[in-house]
Design goal:
alpha/beta; Rossmann fold; 2 domains; six-stranded parallel sheet; four-stranded antiparallel sheet; 10 helices; 17 strands; about 25% helix; about 20% strand; disordered N terminus
Length: about 450
């Protein structure tokens, strides 16, 4: 199917089965789903208002209904139910925008964001634009040094899930590093691997669902955000094309869960996390967030579950409101979890002016200003945001794990935080007080 045909198909499906929202402006919740946690040893109560159910993990279920408030009222008085919550949305916000070339030139001359001498071990023609690859003394991540005289033949491929707006899996710099489901036969309409999803060759799309509420499978979208994040993590190294990703031996699993204007829902995020973990992802990048949690702990509990059960490290952006998120919370960044690495953004001079921060909520910093990467249609562009810092850190995590596959997510997080390049400028911005450093982490 061509890119244009794919977009037409997605648009048509979205129009046909777009979710219905609550009428109130805030907080907004999905009118067709409830999140239910059962008491230990209990079964789902029966109700005519339950259209279908999906077991997410442990005693947590997602119920589909045509009467959210009515079913919620029934379940709250059931002895089988420990808790019931609505499926809240994140509120619409603008995603990071493309930085035009003239702005990049100005940034380059003013701050020397990109344009260093030798590309080191890489033959990718645009790798010189990746200032994040420079020495940590320049507030880069010391990526070039990590690949000097390195033989990747002994590394292990790491699946990295990008939960985002979608990924252009046909991009010249991504097509050779995209994850494909080895247990699924494309286009036969059968759930060959028995994972609950039909024809999920490259991942799932939780935004467009079929008549039964099941996620569909087209992960491509015109939005640049997810493709940009994917390229930062794992664009094919040394292919004489474009750029190089931070990680050398990854498979990018694309999951479309974030609408082009953000506004992702708790259920979609939790399902995406579980899907990624069950299908082999060891690192999950989450470049999104919400400022209100509505007392729901679904996403936090999902992160804890996939960390303990599947050995997954979730890497999340701190947000772009220039706020201390120890006080003004941002989720999932403000959740407390050993399996969650929260990333703020730095420039080559200090913390990015837009970046959130917090010594309790933020773990590390990574380059997030004027980051050059892949965008749809075999193109490349620069964007700024903690949405770019998070995949830089995720790429570092993936490369460490690739060379040291026995590490647990807690060990991996500890190594990343213990090896940062510290600076007094960051001592009150993140718990580690520094910028991730790939070379130092590998040495550690």
């Amino acid at each position: 199917m061509s890119l244009i045909q794919s977009r037409v198909t997605i648009l048509a499906a979205a129009i046909l089965i777009a979710p219905v929202y609550a009428n109130s402006s805030s907080p907004k919740f999905h009118q067709g789903r409830l999140i239910v946690k059962l008491r230990e040893g209990s079964s789902l109560p029966k109700s005519n208002l339950i259209k279908s159910s999906m077991h997410l993990f442990k005693n947590t279920y997602i119920l589909r209904t045509t009467n959210v408030l009515g079913l919620e009222k029934e379940l709250k008085v059931s002895n089988s139910v420990f808790s019931v919550n609505k499926d809240f949305y994140a509120k619409r916000e603008e995603l990071p925008m493309i930085i035009e070339s003239d702005e990049i030139e100005k940034a380059s001359s003013r701050n020397k964001f990109w344009g260093f001498g030798s590309p080191g071990p890489f033959n990718d023609p645009k790798v010189k634009r990746l200032w994040a690859f420079e020495s940590s003394a320049r507030k880069g991540m010391n990526v070039l040094a990590a690949y000097e005289n390195y033989d990747s033949s002994n590394s292990e491929k790491v699946i990295v899930a990008v939960i985002d707006t979608g990924v252009d899996y046909e991009h010249e710099d991504l097509k050779d590093v995209m994850w494909t489901n080895p247990g699924e036969i494309a286009g036969n309409g059968v759930d060959d691997d028995g994972n609950g999803y039909i024809d999920d060759i490259r991942g799932i799309n939780t935004l467009v669902r079929d008549a039964d509420g099941n996620a569909t499978m087209e992960i491509m979208d015109r939005d640049r955000h997810g493709t940009h994040a994917a390229g930062i993590i794992g664009a094919k190294q040394n292919n004489d094309k474009g750029i190089a990703g931070v990680a050398s031996n990854v498979a990018i699993m694309g999951i479309r869960t974030v609408p082009n204007g953000t506004d992702e829902s708790d259920v979609d995020v939790a399902e995406a996390l579980v899907y990624a973990a069950k299908n082999g992802a060891k690192i999950i990048n989450c470049s999104f967030g919400k400022s209100e949690n509505e007392n729901g702990m679904l996403v936090k509990e999902t992160i804890d579950f996939i960390g303990s059960e599947y050995g997954v490290l979730v890497v999340a952006s701190a947000g772009n409101s220039s706020k201390n998120i120890d006080k003004k919370k941002m989720y999932p960044a403000s959740f407390r979890s050993e399996n969650l690495l929260v990333v703020a953004s730095n420039t080559n001079k200090g913390i990015s002016r837009f970046s959130n921060y917090g010594v309790k909520s933020v773990d590390v910093l990574a380059p997030g200003s004027t980051i050059y990467s892949t965008v749809p249609g075999d193109r490349y562009a620069s964007m700024s945001g903690t949405s770019m810092a998070s995949p830089n850190a995720a790429g570092v995590a993936a490369e460490i794990l690739s060379r040291n596959p026995g590490l647990s997510p807690i060990q991996l997080k500890r190594i990343i935080m213990s090896s940062v390049k510290k600076s007094s400028r960051f001592s009150k911005k993140a718990l580690s007080g520094g910028v991730v450093d790939l070379k130092a982490a590998l040495n550690l």
